[in-house]
Structure formats: structure tokens, C-alpha cells
Amino acid sequence: MISVKKNIFRFINFCLLSLVVIIFVYANNFQSSAIAANEKHFYGPGDNKQGYESIDYVTNTLDLQKRVGKQADLLEFYRNPPLGLPPAPVPAYNPLTEEKVSLGRILFFDRRLSINDTFSCAICHIPEQGFTNNEIQTAIGVEGRSGKRNAPTVYNSGYLKMMFHDGREDSLEQQVWAPFLARNEMANPSIGYVINKIKAIPDYDGLFEKAFDGRGPTMETVGMALASYQRTLNAADSPFDRWHFGKQQDAVSESVKRGFEVFTGKGQCSVCHLIHEDYALFADNQLHNTGLGYETSMGSNSTTTRVQLAPGVFADLDNKIIRSVSKAKLNDVGRYEVTENPNDRWKFLTPMLRNVALTAPYMHDGSMQSLREVMEFYNQGGVENELLSPLIKPLDLSDQEIDDVIEFLKSLTGSNIGTLVADAFAAPIGNISKDDPNWAHDNQIK
Ligand code: HEC
Ligand code: HEC
């Protein structure tokens, strides 16, 4: 009897041990294949992305050691805009000067200009990511506070007649105060707080006075300096420009040429994304309802929503689960938020399409990851709603035509992008240092 029991015990022990060994070998294999995938895809330039667990994730962010900075003659891109751009407009009260551009460039990269010294403009408008952020759909500000809109590029922003996706600002000089003060962006408590902080930072000693005839930092001069830097970020002379305006036949592929025909013909894109005779900004300074805003704020028939968990990591979650854990979805009615005119619901500003290959994700809410998704959206005629723009209708484009338009859009990347990015890398980054007052405790900022 005893020996039978012993044998049963031995047998069970053996089974358990085998199971443990099998699990161990399996888990080890699994782990090492995951690590192999990591090594292939996550290392290289940029932060170490281990733990993101998404094999297809790639980043354009360069780590600090890999950045090669080289200061450029920025004013030249304003004086002689690259091929394809018209003369650059500048308000009479803020003529562009070397001193203002250089001061604006320092301000743009200064993280101390946020409440907790972490956020500069460049944290959301990242130079090597098309001066936008390719990694998140809607902007995230200090302390992880999220906003409802995608950060647009600031390339060619000097040409904008209206700013923001709802067109609520009309000058770069004034626009800056929105991010400075927004709770979910740089979160400064007041205008005076920002001005006093700049006055207290030794790096700025004398710079404003030199740029503005003796005037120090004020609400106006801060805006004027930042506007001046941004007005030099003109990026064009793309393959398309060399072909279309420069008459250089071999500057683009046959596919780009066919794509241009579709863009200006069957696709009707250039009705809103305008191309003029001797320049192109691909925008019309108008706001339109394409149905995208309607779909996200009124809900679609879909039972799942694609949620971004981390850069490059997405999950399709059941809407019931989302509702159970989150507050109501941030509603965005677009231009209506500016005018409160019901006819303006879900209208958004036509973006300029220059350098669009560098500025994913797309649309006011960053909901489209690729140009293909954008094309499929237009091809189906946007999303039907009572206020849909009459200019948006099903296009019946073939796969070939869609591919060609995408090639055309990719041909809009300016030849001087590398120069502008290298210049940005050469700019000083304003980080809190031992020379700065300890804002939080010394009570320097009132
Ligand atoms: C937290 C991220 C964030 C920070 C920081 C930030 N921005 Fe932006 N920026 C955005 C978003 C999001 C929008 C679009 C907002 C909207 O449409 O309501 C935007 C819009 C803009 C626009 C208008 C572009 C267009 O096509 O309409 C300009 C210009 C701009 N920002 C410049 C700046 C400057 C200068 C700073 C620093 C003072 C700055 N931004 C700081 C996220 C940010
Ligand atoms: C009725 C005017 C109109 C027409 C026609 C139109 N667009 Fe647009 N386009 C817009 C507006 C408005 C937006 C911004 C929508 C938003 O933010 O939700 C936009 C956004 C885009 C974007 C995203 C850009 C970015 O930076 O997020 C691309 C790319 C684009 N359009 C390409 C095209 C192409 C290609 C066509 C033709 C198939 C086309 N558009 C037709 C008005 C138009």
C-alpha cells in the first residue's frame, strides 16, 4: 500500500516538475523572441522604447547625442522665400530683424516659460517631427493634461491668415498667449507671471532691449519675437515646386504628375487646397465641414473605438468599457466655438498641405494616422451630416488614383527642411539651472 502511494506521489511530482520545466522553457523562448523584436525595432535613434511592446513603432525623435546643430541664416528664408511660396507677409508694426528672430528662437525652446519649467513651445512643435508631434493624436501639456486637438506644424505659419483649427486668432503676435496660459499646455497662471519670469532669467538680460529699441519684455514684445522666429520657418522648394513652378521635368515621378492631375481634377482637392499661378499654399483661409467633427462628436455606428495607449500602441476597445471608465468624450464643434452660429458646427480650418508627409497624424483631432486613411475618408465623401460642405462628395477614385495623390502629397516636402531642423538643434534649450532663481520657493515670481 505504502509503496503504491509513494509511486503515485513520485508520478505527480514528476508531472509537476515537467510542467514547470515546460512553462519555464516556453516563457524563456517567448521572452527572448520579444527581446529580439525589441532589439530590431526599438533601439537606434531616440529614446529607448523598451516596454512600448509594439513592434511596428518607429520614432523620428533623435537622442541628444545624435542631433547635429548648425545655425542657419534664417532671415534669408523670409527675404527670399523658397520656390513655390509668395512674398512673406509681415505686419508693419513688427518688421523682421536679426535680433527679433534670434530672441524668438531662444524663447521657442525655453522650457522655463511654463509653470513647472518643463514645457517649451518645441515640446509640442518638435523640429525633427515636422514641428508638430508625430507620436500623439492630441496634444498633452504640463502634468499630462490632455487637450482635444492635434498640434499643427508651425512651418509656413507666417502665411496663415487665421490660426488654430477653428481660426480663432489672426496674428502670430497674439496667438502665443493661448499656449502660454492654457491649463493643459504651458499652464502659466497669468501674463504678468510669464513676463516677470523672463525678466528674472539672466539669459535674457539686454536681449529684448536690443531687439525692441530699449523696450524690455512685455506682452507685446514676447509675441513679436516669437512671431518673428516663426516667420522664418518657411519650407518649400519641394520636388513638386521644382517641377510645377521651376519647369524641371524630371523633378518628380510620373505617379506624382498623375496625382497632381487627380488633385486638381477628379479629386477636386484644389477647390479648397488652392494652387495659384505662381505660388501655392494649398489653403483657402476658409473653414469647412467635412463630417469628421460631426462623426466624433455625434458618435458613429461603430461599437468600438481605437484608443492610443502610448506612442505607437493602439487598442480597439468596446465603447461600453470606455464609457465605464472615462468622462464624457471631449466634444469639438469647431468654428461654432468661436461664433456660436449653429451653421458653423463642425467646421474646421483648411490646413496648408506643404510638408504634409512629415506632419502625421492628420486632421484637427489627429484621428488619421496616414495619408491613405485621409484619402479613403475623402473618397467615401467624408461623413454625411446636415451641414456637410457641398464640396465634399464621394469621388470614386481607383486604388491607382489614390496611390498617385499620396505620391503627390509626399512630393510637397521642402528642400530646406534639413537646414531648418539643424538650425533648431543649434538653438539653446532653456532648462532650469543653478543660475536661475528657485521659482517655487524664492517667491521671485509674483
Ligand atoms: C501642449 C502642446 C503645445 C504647446 C506647449 C504649444 N503648442 Fe502651439 N499648438 C498646439 C495645439 C494643440 C494647437 C492647435 C490648437 C487649436 O486649434 O485649438 C497649436 C497651434 C499653434 C499655432 C497655430 C498653427 C495653425 O496652423 O493654426 C501656432 C503658430 C503655434 N501653436 C505656436 C506655438 C508657440 C509659439 C508656442 C509656445 C509659446 C506653442 N505653440 C506651444 C499645441 C501646443
Ligand atoms: C471642402 C474643402 C476641402 C476639400 C474639397 C478637400 N479638403 Fe482636405 N481639408 C479640408 C479641411 C477643412 C481640412 C481639416 C479638417 C479637420 O481638421 O478636421 C482638410 C484636411 C486635409 C488633410 C490633413 C492635413 C493635416 O495637416 O492634418 C489632407 C492631407 C487633405 N485635407 C488632403 C486633401 C485631398 C487630397 C483632397 C482631395 C481628395 C482634399 N483634401 C479635399 C478641406 C478640404
Radius of gyration: 26 Å
CATH superfamily of the largest domain: Cytochrome c-like domain
Number of helices: 17
Question: In what range is the share of β-strand residues?
Answer: under 5%
The major β-sheet equals: 2 strands, antiparallel
> Could you give the count of β-strands?
4
Give the CA-based shape.
globular
Total count of domains:
3
**Sheet with most strands: strand arrangement:** 1-4
Mean pLDDT: 86
Write the layout of secondary structure elements.
Elements: H1 2-41, H2 74-79, H3 98-108, H4 172-175, H5 177-181, H6 191-200, H7 207-211, H8 219-230, H9 239-244, H10 254-264, E1 287-288, H11 292-298, E2 304-310, E3 313-318, H12 319-325, H13 336-339, E4 348-349, H14 371-379, H15 399-410, H16 417-426, H17 439-442
Antiparallel strand pairs: 1-4, 2-3
Helix pairs in contact: 3-8, 10-15, 14-15
The structure holds heme C (2 copies).
What keyword list fits this structure?
446 residues; mainly alpha; Cytochrome Bc1 Complex, Chain D, domain 2; 3 domains; two-stranded antiparallel sheet; 4 strands; 37% helix
3D architecture notes:
The chain has 446 residues and is mainly alpha-helical. The chain folds into 3 domains: 1-67; 72-235 and 419-442, Cytochrome Bc1 Complex, Chain D, domain 2 (Orthogonal Bundle), CATH 1.10.760.10; 239-413, Orthogonal Bundle (Cytochrome Bc1 Complex, Chain D, domain 2). It has 17 helices and 4 strands. It has helices spanning 2-41, 74-79, 98-108, 172-175, 177-181, 191-200, 207-211, 219-230, 239-244, 254-264, 292-298, 319-325, 336-339, 371-379, 399-410, 417-426, 439-442, and strands at 287-288, 304-310, 313-318, 348-349. Strands 1-4 form a two-stranded antiparallel sheet. The chain has a two-stranded antiparallel sheet with strand order 2-3. The longest helix has 40 residues, at 2-41. Mean pLDDT is 86; it is low at 23-46. It binds heme C (HEC) (2 copies). One heme C is lined by residues 165, 263, 267-269, 271-273, 288, 290, 292-293, 348, 350-351, 353, 356, 359, 362-364, 371, 374, 378, 389, 391-392, 405, 409.
